[in-house]
Amino acid sequence: MDKRRKPNPAERRRDLCDAAIQLLADDGAKGLSHLKVDRKAGVPDGTTSFYFRTRSALLRAAAERLAELDLAELQSVADSSTDQKDDASPSRLSQVVIQAATDPQLSRTKARYELTMQATRDPALAAILQQATDEFTKLHREILVQLMPHGADLEPAVVEDLSNVTLTFINGLLQRLAHGDRFIDTAEQLDGILSAMAAGILKSPNKGRLTRSDGLPPARRSRVAGSG
């Protein structure tokens, strides 16, 4: 009698998505196929096609798995930031960003950019990534409030400026790290840069109005408002 444990469908889907993420990192989106995922995951040929009928379905599932991993990691940062008392140690946020330059996080970083490019031609994939971005941004704001002195007293618009600017910088940094350009190599360095950026924003007379959904810089918004 064969007593081998029958694969749990949820676990099998997760393993296939993890294999797909690694393939996206190694070979790019063009190198992703059901058969390659089968081989990468070490499962019988046809397994990936059984769980994900189309390539689009596979990409979307990989995006959902990637978002799950990223958000879980960022949530751990948020949870640990409330307990961080040692000002001499680098923030957990900066540690996580720098770790993105080494595997397994590096593979996720590369896969994320591959999926982002694919999303420009796949509205359903774009929606998955946008939802993850919204949740990621919300957590990032919470972390900033926790890490900054008197962060809880900052006006929401100022927190939004801080979040938008620092998150934009971090995204650009991650892209450079993914290409092997480690011009920032330690969490301490990154902490110093983020602190300087935050200090500059807080000193700005336009704080709370530096980043807006209308996409206009403060001076241009003033001219537009005055023209009416």
From TrEMBL:
Residues 10-70 form the HTH tetR-type domain. InterPro entries: Homeodomain-like_sf (IPR009057), HTH_TetR (IPR001647), TetR_C_31 (IPR041583). Residues 205-228 are annotated as: Disordered. Transmembrane segments: none annotated. Keywords: DNA-binding. PROSITE patterns: HTH_TETR_2 (PS50977). GO terms for molecular function: DNA binding. The keyword DNA-binding applies. Pfam families: TetR_C_31. Residues 33-52 bind DNA. This is TetR family transcriptional regulator. It comes from Mycobacterium nebraskense. The lineage of its organism: Bacteria, Bacillati, Actinomycetota, Actinomycetes, Mycobacteriales.
